[in-house]
Specification:
Layout lengths: L3 H6 L7 E5 L14 E6 L14 E4 L9 E2 L5 H14 L1 H13 L5 H15 L3 H9 L13 E4 L4 E5 L10 H16 L6 E5 L19 H10 L2 H7 L4 E5 L2 E3 L1 H4 L6 E4 L4 E3 L13 H4 L1 H4 L1 H10 L5 H7 L4 E2 L2
Amino acid sequence: MATGLVADLTQLSGAGLAVTEIGVDPPPLAHTPGVVQVGVHRGGPIPGGALDPFDILICAEPAAPGPWVGVAPARLDAALAELRAAVARQPVAAAVAAQVFRTTLEVSFDQALVNESLAYSMLLASEGFRAWRAANPPRERADDPAPRVRIDAGRTLSIRLERPAARNAFDARMRDELCEALAFALEHPDAPPVRLSGAGPAFSAGGDLDEFGRAPDPGQAHLIRTLRSPARLAQALGERLTVEVHGACIGAGIEVPAAAARIAARPGAHFRLPEVSMGLIPGAGGTATIPRRIGRRRACWMAISGAEVDLATALAWGLVDEVAV
């Protein structure tokens, strides 16, 4: 029988998810390192009480209140199986995501960004990420010198992502240009309202996958990520910033907007956090921004499951504030 450290390390073999049937099983007393703890309620009044140790709360109610993820009763077991499979594919990234989400609302916004970047940098050296990168080798492409971000000044300062052929995928140049634009807005002497939008069929399909893991020094990459953070600047703009999103809002495409005071989404917008499936966690600020809109448990479910959130759910949860017409 495995004991002590050996038993602890077995959690990393893919058995990193524990499901508690609330009202049937005794609830966990504390968080368990290396294990994603899921509470499930199969019907009836939504319980309160000792729910703190749970990373994710799922109930058989499509319109669930508070921290719960509502699932149609007929889909509940399938949803749990999908979640278990997602954790089994990337147990280390899933466990690290849960650990980061557990603390994100207990620290300042800036510190939450730092904690996220530290964990993200560490996972870049993990076996899970290396396996994903080997299965999805980056493409060699000619450099596109075109600007990634456009600024139009007026009564409202308009900032637009301008990489439509790549569905506004965030590469290092887009990140840096967006930081420059948001910093310009933040320092503008007239403090005008600011609107951020994206050109083309999608607001943003997320990070440019061809750049993932290419930084030669993970420590330096961490410092760059914290110094050049669009999410930090978006949050600093406060009530001045509205983000208009449409189409695919994947990874950074919702992590950065979630820092804004207001998000207006066009019909058909949809949202997803795919990073755990790559052996990583959200790295553009999502572990800090999204829990501050929808709570840490729903955010943790989005990150670990990788499931797509439709506009109606995003609106009900507060991930977006209004539907633009």
